[in-house]
Amino acid sequence: MANDSMPDAGLRPTYVRYAKLWLRQHGLGDGPPTPLLTARLAVRWRARTLDSVLQAVLIIGAALVLVSGGLGSRRPAPVLALGALIAALVLARTLLDAWIRRVDRQVGAALARRAAHAVQPGWRALLGWPYAALVAGTFAGAFALGAGALAVGEDTARYAAVVVLVAVVGVGLGEALQLRELLARPVVAEDEVSLMADVIMRIEDVREGTTPTVLWTLPMVLLVGFSPGWLNAACFGFVVLGAAAYIAVRFRMPGAAAVAREVVGAR
Q1: In the predicted structure, residue 173 carries a pLDDT above the cut 90
Q2: Torsion over CA: 225, 171, 211, 138 (sign)
Q3: What is the per-residue pLDDT across 157-171, written as a single tens digit (0 to 9) for each?
Q4: Which of 106, 89, 78 shows the shortest CA–CA distance to 53?
Q5: Integer CA distances (angstroms), 201 to 94, 191, 195, in order
Q6: Burial class (CB in 10 A: 0-12, 13-18, 19+), 180
Q7: Which of 123, 131, 145, 204 has its CB 3.0 to 4.6 Å from that of 219, i.e. a possible disulfide?
Q8: Eight-state DSSP code of residue 255
């Protein structure tokens, strides 16, 4: 049973059902989830839902500016407004990650016992070379598009390019800090099932956190429509090739549960 410091989200029937489904999908049994697992899975579910909403807000905001003709007006205000929206999105994602960490710490402090099998997977287990190559290539592509737009003489394109470059650097720093925190995060587990779930959640956290949705969105939102034709084509090609590479990596890479079993079994 959870003590008073356990987040109350773990007691809600909706989250309990979600936790049961998650355990079943990852081959961790059909039994009822513990309050520990339910609380940790519930906060991740809510945080990822909010993250999806934030990305939708970014796309809708950009669409409204485009429909109003703001990006074609040669005025910096619309681009700067979109830049502020992107900065708010990056900040919000950082706060969502902090929320997940806070709940994990609360749950860990509430444990009456801890699993003796101390697992501390490295970045290769959490991310893997294919994901790392995909992330690095996406960052390089987004940065190259921003640098290309910066070389264009038109003022609005230059404003947009600066926003893209700053946002790419900000997203990169955020993801690097998240990976560093996941590598140093202590194990939160009380038995074999919660130990395996802990490793799976780490892998899912880093894979979800490095999904390059924002990096694909930035050039499309800020550069397409008022840049030269070659740059517009490059932005579209960047998204198409990136999505194809992401699908290929997801199909070729083993799932989080398979990687977690390998990590735990190797110890």
Answers
A1: no
A2: positive
A3: 777 788 788 888 888
A4: 89
A5: 18, 15, 10
A6: exposed
A7: 145
A8: P
pLDDT cut 70: percent of the chain above it: 83
Q: Phi and psi dihedrals of 153, rounded to 5?
A: -75, -15
CA distance 33 to 18: 10
Exposed/middle/buried for 105, CB within 10 Å: 0-12, 13-18, 19+?
A: middle
* Angle, CA 162 vertex, CA 157 and CA 127 arms, to 5°: 120
Predicted confidence (pLDDT) at residue 223 exceeds the cutoff of 90: no
Q: What is the DSSP letter of 253?
A: S
Angle formed at CA 52 by CA 209 and CA 239, multiple of 5 degrees: 70
How far is the C-alpha of 129 from the C-alpha of 16, rounded, in Å? 34
Domain edges within the chain: 8-265
Euclidean distance between CA atoms 66 and 8, whole angstroms: 43
Sequence-distant (6+) residues with CB within 8 A of 103 are 7, 9, 39, 40, 43
Question: How many residues would you count in the chain?
Answer: 267
CA 151 to chain centre: 30
d(CA 190, CA 213): 35
Q: What is the DSSP code (8-state) at residue 225?
A: T
pTM of the complete model beyond 0.90: no
